[in-house]
Amino acid sequence: MTDKPRQRLFVLDTNVLMHDPVSLFCFHEHDVFIPMVVLEELDAAKKGLSEVSRNVRQVSRFLDDLIDDADTAAIENGLELSSLKDTNEAVKPHGRLFLQTHTFTENLPEYLPGKNADNSILAITLSLQKKHSDRVISLVSKDINLRIKARVLGIHAEDYSSDKVLDDVDLLYHGMDKLPADFWNDKSDKLTSWQQDLRTLYKVSGTPVPECYPHQCLYSEDGSGFEALVAKMDADSTTLVVAVNYYKENNAVWGVNARNREQNFALNLLMDPDIDLVTILGVAGSGKTLLALAAGLAQTMDSKLYREIIITRVTVPLGEDIGFLPGTEEEKMAPWMGALLDNLEVLTNSSGSGDWERAATADLLNKRIKIRSLNFMRGRTFLNRYIIIDEAQNLTPKQMKTLITRTGPGSKMICLGNIAQIDTPYLSETTSGLTYVVDRFRQWEHSGHITLRRGERSRLADFASEIL
Description:
Layout: E1 8-12, H1 14-19, E2 31-34, H2 36-44, H3 51-67, H4 72-77, E3 79-80, E4 96-99, H5 117-131, E5 136-140, H6 144-152, E6 156-158, E7 176-178, H7 183-187, E8 192-196, E9 199-205, E10 217-219, E11 227-233, E12 237-242, H8 261-270, E13 277-282, H9 288-302, E14 308-313, H10 329-333, H11 338-348, H12 355-368, E15 369-371, E16 385-390, H13 397-404, E17 412-417, H14 433-441, E18 447-452, H15 459-467
Parallel strand pairs: 1-2, 1-5, 2-4, 5-6, 7-10, 13-17, 13-18, 14-15, 14-16, 16-17
Antiparallel strand pairs: 3-4, 8-9, 9-12, 10-11, 11-12
Helix pairs in contact: 8-9, 9-11, 13-14
């Protein structure tokens, strides 16, 4: 006979609620406890227009709905989390919410001096352990140092992981796969090919690889140099379209050629008007911004497919913040757009043009490229625009949703980033908004993804990426 598992009580730290307001309802049948010091910290952070302030206000609304019309006895016995009217029936929790209603007298050891908010939470958690010895008490916090102190005191502590897209970042969809060695022999009996719009297409039975998605990039290593993308997927067949060869000098995109297989696939995705969302991951110097900008200029200036290019990024500093910046919206964003200016210099400095021609070209491009701040994106709709979100790994899933839903008819969005270089606090490779988008959009027929593995910036940069 197996013992019945003990019900757990989760003590939530302030940063968990700030990070994800819905975390109140993510503990299934278990109970949740919120110390009074957490409510005080939430109250202090409710003012402002930042994402954290919005999350805090949403938590306050949830708590207000839960506590509405509840008397003192009901609060003491715990509020039913399932009583919230807006909770989805499929994920409705069955536990209770407990708010601190009396003083806990547990004293911390002398080697933990001071009485700050973190220490108050630790003292309350220790008191709960003594009071409810029949239950497993867990402290949930995004603060690594608080979790370390909790474990020193013998408190079970864990990170908030309900917002993780994947258990391991290695499981993230790469967008590219190798065809089996016997692919052509295996599919030869049920293979058809034809020409359409100067492109060669192949229709094969089943799927070419075990996990197949729309616009997935496929290649063969049998020496033929075969590169193709999944154009269409049916119940019993898959249609492949041969990738456009952007290696050749006479087929450059705004003067840019592909230097490797991943870049060639990236240009195919960027230049396809049927793809509304392209996500590109890659190490530093792999060409993410250059390829996206070159494809945008080609489709904006040459083919007139889009009216203008809009570029934005999250303004998270690498080091100390330099403070407020003067000027207009574009002038304030200029220091954050060094990558854009560097790549524009590469794209406009053709060897056969003089200083006057380069200056005229740069002036013309600046009128078709708009730099926008994320702070003013809410409520906007972009029509026939080519939108580039740089450093998208620093965005939360909620921020990514806000941005992607800004796209109107005829627009295309490009999300660029390196999930190994996240600067936003409490975001990781498995909780980044860019990871979230890559995973959620891989099955949509109007999206494409590719991971650039090789750096093409310089031999110094490549060696530094490997050795440092």
